[in-house]
C-alpha cells in the first residue's frame, strides 16, 4: 500500500469473516498477458499494479493523470524485486485520442479500469458533478469502447454507492455500470465486466486517515451519525478478490457482474472508537466524539446489490456473481444525451439524462 494507514489496525472489526490475504494469490488470468491499469496511482489502482506485477504479466501498462501518483507507484515497483516490462504513462482517460494512441501502441489484452472521481461530498455541486460525469462516465466509455475495438478484456472497478445511489459519485458510477452492461450486448464476444465493493480501509478518500489526523490533533473525532454503517475491507483483500473475479470472467464470455462479500457492515462510530483506543487514548474522555450530521450525498447505510439482482455463489470464497434483471440497451439514448450535455456543461440537461438512466436515484441533481 502506497498511502493511508496500517490496515491491520482495523482487522478486529472485520472478524465476522476470514480475511483474504494477497501473499498467496497468483492469478492465472494475468500470467503472460499485456495488462493495463487506469488510475494506476490511486489507492485501488496502485494495489492492482503491485498484485498484477507479482502475477507475472508479459507487460504492465500504468495509466495515470497525476504525475506525483504515477511517480510514486513507479518508485514502489523500482524498489521491489519484481522485474517486468512496464510502462508508466501520463494520460487522462477522458482524452479519447490519447487513450486510442496508447491502445494502438501497447495493445493491452486486459484492462482494469480504476480511474474515477470518488469523493462523495466534493462532487455534490454543479461543476464537480459534470466533472464526475466526464471522468466516471465518459472516461469509462472511452476505455471500454477501445477494449471492444482491440478485443481487450475489461473490468470496471465499481462501488456499493452505485446501488440505489444518493450521491453524484454513486450516480455516475451507476451510469458507468449500465453503459458497460449495454456495451456487452453489442459486443458479446468481448469480456466486459465489473467488480463492485464497498469502502476500503486506508484509501486516500476513506474516513480512517481523517480520524487519525483528528486524533493526532487532540480531537474531536467527527461522526456524521451514530447509526451510520459501512461495508469495510482492506485494500489488499479487495484487490485480491477483484483479480479472482477477473479469473472467473475468463471462463464467461460476455458480461460479468461480480459483488465482493464484505461481511457485515460496521458502525463508523465503532471504527472511530477503536482507532482512538489503538492510539492509547480513551474514547469520550481523552478524545471527544462529535456528531456533525450526514454530509451532502451520504446515505446512512450502503447496499452491495439491488434487490432484483440475483446473487450466486461462484466457487471462489468472497466473490459472488450478480445476474442483473433488466435490459440496459433501453438506456443508450439517454446515455448519449448525458454525454452531449456534459460536453456542453449543461447542468439541467445532465440532471434530466441521469434521472432517466437511474430512476431509482435518491439524491438531487438540480441546481
Describe the structure.
With 367 residues, the chain is α/β, with parallel strands linked by helices. The protein is 38% helix and 18% strand. It contains 10 helices and 15 strands. The protein has helices spanning 43-53, 67-78, 96-106, 126-150, 168-186, 207-216, 235-249, 268-278, 332-344, 347-357, and strands at 34-38, 59-64, 85-90, 110-113, 153-159, 192-197, 199-201, 221-223, 229-230, 232-234, 255-260, 266-267, 289-291, 310-313, 319-323. The strands form 4 sheets. The protein has a 9-stranded mixed sheet, sandwiched between helices. It has a two-stranded parallel sheet with strand order 7-10. The radius of gyration is 20 Å and the shape is globular. The relative contact order is 0.15. Mean pLDDT is 89; it is low at 1-6.
Brief summary of the model shown:
The protein is an alpha/beta fold and 367 residues long. It has helices at residues 43-53, 67-78, 96-106, 126-150, 168-186, 207-216, 235-249, 268-278, 332-344, 347-357, and strands spanning 34-38, 59-64, 85-90, 110-113, 153-159, 192-197, 199-201, 221-223, 229-230, 232-234, 255-260, 266-267, 289-291, 310-313, 319-323.
The global form is globular
Uncertain ranges: 1-6
**Physical arrangement of strands within the biggest beta sheet:** 3-2-1-4-5-6-11-15-14
Q: Level of helix content? A: 25-40%
> Termini, distance in Å?
38 Å
What topology emerges from the helices and strands here?
Layout: E1 34-38, H1 43-53, E2 59-64, H2 67-78, E3 85-90, H3 96-106, E4 110-113, H4 126-150, E5 153-159, H5 168-186, E6 192-197, E7 199-201, H6 207-216, E8 221-223, E9 229-230, E10 232-234, H7 235-249, E11 255-260, E12 266-267, H8 268-278, E13 289-291, E14 310-313, E15 319-323, H9 332-344, H10 347-357
Helix pairs in contact: 1-7, 3-4, 4-5, 4-9, 6-8, 9-10
